[in-house]
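Much of our argument rests on the idea that a fold can be written as discrete symbols. Part of our work consisted of pairing the sequence of a single chain with a tokenised description of its backbone. No coordinates are needed to read the tokens, only the vocabulary itself. The record that follows shows the chain in one-letter code together with its fold in token form.
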Amino acid sequence: MLKEKHMNTRWMTGAVAAAALLMVAACGGGGGGSPGNDSSQGTTTGGSTPSTTPGGTTPSTTPGETPSTTPGGTTQQPTNTTPTLAAATPVVDGTTLGAAQWSDGSTATGGAGQAVSNLNCAIAGNKYSYAHLSVYQNGKQLALPANIGTIAPTMARQTGCVYPVHTVDASGKIRMDVTSNASYTLGQFFSVWGQPLSTTNVAGITGDVTAWVNTGGTLTKYTGDLASLVLPQHGEVTLVIGTAPTQIATYTWTDPPPFTPTVTTLSYGGVVGTSFWADGNTATGGTGATVDGLICAAGMAETFHVHSHVAIFKDGQWLAFPKNVGILPQCNYETHTHDNTGIIHIETPNMKNFTLGQVFDIWGQPLSSTNVAGITGNIVIYINDNGDVRRYTGDPRNIPLTSLRDITFQIGTPLTTLPTYSWYEPQ
């Protein structure tokens, strides 16, 4: 009855519409198929407008995008499982990326100095690259722990050791020893860490796991065995547990300057740099009393004996570190200098943890992120462990003194290269 009433009152409109439909049918409109029965016709999300893709391919879409229509009329349904790359974020070493989830270091089942997954723990090599690992759980980024595969010194192994794949901070950067041009897999890194890795378990977090690899700005879904995924140099691996984020973070790293090819020889009794400070402790430094837990004694046994190095540059000029810091007529402190080369001697009967702050306190000089022995300005710190170099952004007082570690202070004018050394007491 409603249709009849409509036709009676709008007969001319209906006639025109009918004529139009007859003309369309005669011209083959709608692709020539039966109305409502086109087998290539898909569904669309509510209120979305299809887009056209040449060749009829199915483009991937991110959440919130409209479905696409091929020239043949096929409407593709949007997918919410393919993340995209976010705009690159500038990052320096030492930055924590993600929320804390795991304890630092390898677990009890990971690398503790023994061979793991055909990888040996040894003194750091002299050439390094890196890959980056991000882990997401239901869209939330989790921070990769620091010091995975980094083994602290002991009395038996005074140099400590590192695995060829390891971390030094919570930035997610996996440092890779490429001295011998070796490549490494994600499975080897997780073995060193001592954590499970599978399609349903990432370091103890369970759920469906998807892997993505970003090399050169191209994000690719990895569908092979996760343990066999080769860590790409300067590339990024992202493990997604559960719901994928709509975007995956990507980073641009401010890398340290390259090493100079000119080797600086550190000779016992020598001088490296221009004289700037007086030799020995200042009036506020150590006078024989215990300083920061370090004693001063005569004839102290040197059962634990390693060396670090400090280089201080002010506007590109190398300033010689003073000799006889920590050396008094009646005693020597457990950490001290013998010459102006910058070598810090650690000589003690007992295994201890030593920091750069202790050296400066014995010296009697300030040390902070804005003041190095009285020199102020824009201060950047680089740590080099025998070739494994990175920027340090923490409190310089807390920098551990370990075997063959070089600590470079750049004050003012940026350095174009970092020094390399021939040590007079290699370890």
Remarks:
- The chain has two domains: 84-253, 259-422.
- The radius of gyration is 32 Å.
